[in-house]
Specification:
Elements (H helix, E strand, L loop, with lengths): L12 H13 L3 E6 L3 H17 L9 E6 L7 H10 L4 E4 L2 H10 L5 E3 L22 E5 L6 H11 L5 E7 L3 H16 L3 E7 L4 H13 L4 E4 L3 H5 L1 H10 L3 E4 L2 H5 L4 E5 L1 H16 L10 E2 L3 E6 H6 L6 H6 L2 E3 L1
Parallel strand pairs: 1-2, 1-3, 3-4, 4-5, 5-11, 6-7, 6-8, 8-9, 9-10, 12-13
Antiparallel strand pairs: 10-12
């Protein structure tokens, strides 16, 4: 058991024995708080567990790891946060910016390891610099929409004669709205017509309306900007796009695993595994203010061959050679 779990104020054999007993009975609490759903986030939590185990923090043995989800409803998040704070949570892990901002505002005293952070200082209250965040939040940046140009380029390469692309993004959060705008600009810069569709809720009926609008606008392709809403709806997006004959490009491989056409982005499970070491450091006494925000170094291109066949698309050899995985 690690020295941080219990501090022995005085020496002596009896004190040492009592301290050992206390350490055995006390495990630090680590919480994963997601705005999406348990189903959509399960691969992330599994990767976090593996990362913790790799640094000797086996959940349910060396630490207590709990996971809570708002199921796409931001209004539910504060109650989830208050619950783990009341339980004495030592570190909170979150999958994205919206959750990190919510924790930072409501419980600024709690260390946060966040995924999906921007690669520049867009929210000074969240962190002051990549090298030295300066607050309670540290974590990892996958470069997000910094890769928008590349995603458009790859979609054009896979879909011959692509003329119109739809961009599906969360329109209630200013950051993801701006990422949608950035993707639209990237599409137009490459000579495509672009129609941007704003997701405002997790309701499937609202998504149906947006997908129909994409089809009516003549979109042959769609780029999905990842956030908690599009992540929550990813199965429906993939299925509806395929039924409508629309080729899809996303940020994460799990979108392709459930039927989307293609993804290009950081290896998110790898970042969650690495997060285990950051949680371990904080439990050992490290200050998030001094822990650099790490930039993604692993990027992967994943293509679903079966989806391509259903869309009557032939995957070019140039993409096959570069793909990290072709799902059969």
């Amino acid at each position: 058991m690690r020295r941080r779990d219990f501090v022995v104020a005085a020496g002596g054999a009896l004190a040492g024995t009592l301290a050992g007993q206390a350490r055995a009975a006390t495990k630090p609490l680590v919480a994963y708080l997601g705005i999406a759903s348990r189903t959509s986030d399960q691969p992330f939590v599994d990767s976090l567990r593996r990362g913790l185990q790799e640094v000797g923090r086996t959940p349910d043995v060396d630490i207590t790891l709990v996971d809570r989800y708002a199921d796409g409803d931001l209004a539910r998040f504060p109650a989830l946060l208050d619950d783990v704070v009341a339980q004495g949570v030592a570190v909170i892990v979150v999958p994205g910016i919206a959750a990190a901002l919510a924790v930072r505002e409501r419980a600024p005293q709690i260390p946060v390891v966040a995924m999906g952070l921007p690669s520049t200082v867009l929210y000074p209250d969240l962190f002051q610099s990549l090298h030295r965040p300066g607050g309670s939040v540290t974590g990892f940046s996958p470069f997000g929409e910094d890769l928008a140009d590349k995603r458009v380029e790859l979609l054009r390469e896979l879909v011959p004669g692509l003329r119109t692309v739809a961009i599906l993004n969360n329109s209630i959060d200013p950051l993801y709205r701006s990422w949608g705008e950035k993707t639209e600009q990237a599409a137009r810069a490459q000579g495509l017509a672009a129609v941007r569709l704003g997701v405002e809720s997790k309701e499937r009926a609202a998504l149906d309306k947006l997908m129909r609008a994409a089809k009516e606008a003549g979109a042959e392709g769609m780029i999905i900007v990842r956030d908690f809403l599009t992540h929550l709806l990813q199965q429906d997006i993939a299925q509806k796009a395929l039924a409508m004959g629309i080729a899809t490009m996303a940020e994460q491989r799990n979108f392709v695993e459930i039927g989307g056409l293609m993804s290009y982005g950081a290896d998110h499970p790898a970042m969650f595994r690495r997060a285990g070491a950051y949680v371990d450091d904080i439990l050992d006494g490290a200050d998030p203010a001094d822990m650099p925000i790490q930039l993604a170094t692993q990027f992967e291109l994943v293509v679903n061959r079966r989806t391509a066949e259903k869309l009557d698309l032939e995957i070019p050899r140039s993409i096959l050679l570069r793909a990290d995985e072709v799902i059969e």
